[in-house]
Design goal:
The structure holds two protein chains of two kinds. Chain A is an all-alpha fold. Chain A has one domain. Helices cover 72% and strands 0% of the residues of chain A. In chain A, helix 4 packs antiparallel against helix 8 and helix 7 packs antiparallel against helix 8. The two termini of chain A are 22 Å apart. By secondary structure, chain B is an all-alpha fold. Chain B has two domains: 137 residues, no CATH class; 63 residues, Winged helix-like DNA-binding domain superfamily/Winged helix DNA-binding domain (Arc Repressor Mutant, subunit A), CATH 1.10.10.10. In chain B, helix 3 packs across helix 4, helix 3 packs antiparallel against helix 9 and helix 7 crosses helix 9. Chain B is globular, with a radius of gyration of 19 Å. The model of chain B has no long low-confidence stretch (mean pLDDT 82). Classes of the chains: A mainly alpha, B mainly alpha. At the A-B interface, helix 1 of A face helix 2, helix 3, helix 4, helix 7 and helix 9 of B.
Chain lengths: 213, 200
Amino acid sequence: MKTEQLIDLLSTNLEPVDTQKVVRSLSIATVAGLVLASLICIVTLGMRPDLNNPGVLGFLFIKVGFAAVVSILGWRLLLKHTRPGGENHSRIFSAGAPFVALLALAALNLILVPASHWGQLLAGERLLQCVLSIPIMAVVPFAAIVWAVRNAAPTNLLRTGALAGLVAGGIGAMAYALHCPNDSLPFVAFWYGGAIVLCTLAGAALGPRLLRW
Amino acid sequence: MLVNGKSSNHELMKAENAKETSLRALMIAGLGGDGAAYGTLLSELSVHLRAYYRGKLVRAGRETEETEDLVQEALIAVHTRRHTYDPTRLLTPWVYAIARYKLIDHLRRHQPTLKNVPIEDAPEIIAADDSRAADSHFDLNKVLARLPDKIRLAVQYVKIDGLSVVEAAARCGISESAVKMNVHRGLKQLRAMISRENSR
């Protein structure tokens, strides 16, 4: 086929396109992922029963807030990465800032208490459930986000996959926080942070396969 | 091309900026549905893409006959992903990112052990041109013949014969939105077939 022929084919009866479509579908996918993940957590694990206690509710906001900041920062980077060449004008390592900030607070918390309490603050109750539940809650949001990104055109699939995993992990953590019985900063910093990092790595591993176009 | 001295460097930058401005205006018109502007854009891009790919294939030690296949793959990619262009940003880096992505994809499919694809600056894509068009390896009619009848007719009427969507709908006996949907699907399948063909 001659290239001229192809150009005629592509430009005949050209349809106008909406350049906001990428932002819109990514937003819809993210919100849908958040709603579904929260519902899944409430139905399978159940809400925390002691939320009428103001201290418990306050700590819930800290957990959700941390996960929300992670997701929002990651989402903004992800949006840039969905457009060809977008990876060239984004500072991907800024996504690590909330993790560093929370780790610093957790370290401060540990310094202020006697070393004999450290085990309790770090391990908490049902540690394994937390580390496993966050990635599980992240599966549905990850699928939704991948669907939206596939309709765009990422050119750095490893990074885009990692960011999709990061956002999905953040959403998974927000959902799991509704159930999580542990209220300690070191616990959230290490295990929520660790679970989200795990999701990010999984996203990076899957990105090149799932996002190819 | 060697550039000596500040003034000629400056001249070159000015020429590149002018090129960027004109291509971007064509793209924005094309996004709004202006087929003529869009056709001009694709023709101009094909010239730059050809030079870019020819150079890269030579450096990668590949046959230059693959150039035209890659040019067409990149044009189809530009077309099917044109909604991902942000009109507030420069067009050249966007096209370059697609061209490079398609090159890496192409080389990976052919050389699984390939590690180094040369990386360079975006301006390179409009700094060179090559209008020696050749035929690509796939035959449009053969590829079209493999599409399901409904879809093939929609593509034939709307994209090749240039009938309006209304006329095509009347001829096919289906609704206008169904024609649009079939054309969309057809182009998507063509793209998939072309990349499969190229990877042989």
